[in-house]
Design brief:
The structure is a homodimer of 212-residue chains. Chain A has 212 residues and is mainly α. Chain A has 9 helices and no strands. In chain A, helix 5 runs parallel beside helix 8. Chain A binds a DNA duplex (30 and 30 nucleotides) through helix 3.
Chain lengths: 212, 212
DNA sequence: GCGTAACCTTACGGCCGGGTAGGTATGCTC
DNA sequence: GAGCATACCTACCCGGCCGTAAGGTTACGC
């Protein structure tokens, strides 16, 4: 038969990336459960057993997606926020890189991330990632505090860092849902809310609940 | 047969509440998909068809859970944060009520909420609830701003409100994951982060990105 | 050129779990 | 105590989708 093979044979590494691309796309659009392996395979231009051969079961595939995207993001941020810069500069650069990344991947990363938070099997995976991030932020705040000769309880620090990260994630969602919005501008707004708040705290200004 | 009916017959309203209790419990523990209607029925001490007869399909059941819990929470907050109070007082009372509620329901509300964010069918439902909340917060900020004779773009307001709500949700997650933590204290910390930040903004202090 | 390894396919098994059909008991009304 | 609505159950169906068995085809090494 002279029929040229309708689709080309490709080396494993290439196919894997195509599959991951397809998987991210389908998982994002449908959600983990509603996504079918058949659809992912079809979208990758390949047949299902190939996916199983290369990336393993459905859960493993999802985790693989998560890891690839998370790694990309982490690199983007780490490359921007050098540790020797002053705290506000670091925070600003980190935020800008983060929102830049999310903006560029609109319905890839944010949606995937949102998925993972709910589903039991991935909650742990995510919790780890977030914990590392929170730790970095907390470390940054602590560093800035000590530079001012002040100090704060560990839990206080953790909670503030957590709130910061939460607010940022939340705005990432917002950004993913507003295709017309500008990532840079969003980062600025976040910086305003975060830094002016944190800045006050750094200078020892605190708020006290009214009595009774 | 003198066998007294092993389990009692109860009026519909009561059974429905029992079912909802069971559903919240199981959905929280397993997640929407992993939860089976059989387990929910069993946990409610009733058979499956009853659940379908009273609360409808699985999705409808989940939405019903969401609604009941959301309504309870809304009432708790609305009862605490009277609209004629000054902005900081309102925010404080709202936060306190919110964290109090979450703390009291630990693995009910927060987990359910977390579930709903990821799953397609409920995203809309949730988006609506959150949108209303964001609007309230934005309105509060706007009110405070006008009282100071200042004004801010609508999008700016929305984004800040969104960040605030996001940070709060995030701390709710944190609280749900830390059984030993004190809701009141958490509310105070949130208030610090939120109000000192927002307060600065209200007074016209803004942060500008460094050139280049 | 020929073996062999890697790439790729079509087709199917099997199970889990949502949803329902049909029938029984119980208590309330008159 | 007849009649009726409502509470309740056992058993079953059936469709979707994950995961795999078994076999074809292309390219590369020697």
């Amino acid at each position: 038969m002279s029929t040229p093979p309708a689709f080309k044979r490709l080396p494993r590494a290439v196919r894997e990336q195509q599959m991951l691309d397809a998987a991210v796309k389908v998982f994002s659009r449908r959600g983990f459960h509603a996504a079918s392996m058949d659809e992912i395979a079809e979208d990758a231009g390949i047949s299902k057993p190939m996916v199983y051969a290369y990336l393993g079961t459905k859960e493993e595939l999802f985790v693989a997606c998560l890891h690839r995207e998370a790694t990309r993001m982490t690199h983007a941020i780490a490359g921007a926020a050098a540790p020797e810069l002053p705290a506000d500069e670091r925070l600003w650069r980190g935020l800008r890189a983060f929102f830049g990344f999310v903006g560029a991947h609109r319905d890839g990363w944010a949606v995937l991330y949102r998925q993972a938070r709910g589903e039991q099997p991935f909650a742990g995976e995510l919790a780890g990632m977030r914990a590392r991030l929170v730790e970095v932020v907390a470390g940054m705040l602590d560093h800035a505090l000590r530079a001012e000769g002040r100090e704060v309880g560990e839990t206080d620090l953790e909670v503030v860092a957590y709130a910061l990260v939460g607010a940022t994630e939340s705005l990432a969602d917002w950004l993913a849902d507003h295709p017309e919005a500008d990532p840079e501008k969003t980062a600025t707004r976040m910086m305003n809310a975060a830094w002016l708040g944190a800045g006050q705290l750094l200078h020892g200004v605190t708020w006290h609940p009214p009595q009774a």
